[in-house]
Design a protein that fits this description.
5-stranded mixed β-sheet; alpha/beta; globular; two-stranded antiparallel sheet; Glutaredoxin; 27% helix
């Protein structure tokens, strides 16, 4: 998906099995960030960047929502271990990742496999993508600062 596209209302189920919809966050801008896997170094750094800046993000009108293909149980553990104050969508069937175009072929040590391309979508209160941070742009340790620095 690209700038100007509309994000689907139903995002998926969070760590507690609760359905998450964009319409639940009326009036908020959404930081919808996709990451490959709970409790890996880069993904933990990115999540902690969001956590450590959640107050400033909130002041700017943002609600943070993370998405990965991990299970609800994995997400609950990740949230508890790192005190994450935002929901994580368990996209175990990769439906949302595929809709958003971030489920892609990757390569590591010559082996090809399918996975999440670390991507962040900034979504307006009316559900339209305003900005896309691509995998090459995202600096996991300071990603929240990148969002806050947007014009």
């Amino acid at each position: 998906m690209n700038v100007g596209d509309r994000v689907p209302d139903l995002l998926g189920k969070d760590q507690d099995g609760k359905e998450i919809r964009l319409s639940d966050y009326q009036g908020k801008k959404i930081v919808l960030y996709f990451y490959p896997k709970d409790n890996t170094s880069g993904c933990t750094a990115e999540a902690c960047s969001m956590r450590d800046n959640i107050e400033d993000l909130g002041k700017e009108g943002y609600q943070v929502i993370g998405v990965s293909p991990d299970s609800e149980k994995s997400h609950r553990n990740f949230i508890e271990k790192h005190s994450l104050p935002f929901p994580l969508i368990a996209d175990t069937d990769r439906r949302l990742a595929e809709q958003m175009g971030v489920w892609v072929e990757k390569s590591m040590y010559g082996r090809k496999y399918m996975g999440i391309a670390r991507t962040t979508f900034i979504v307006s209160p009316d559900g339209i993508i305003q900005r896309v941070f691509t995998p090459k742009e995202i600096k996991a340790k300071t990603h929240a600062d990148q969002i806050l620095a947007m014009p």
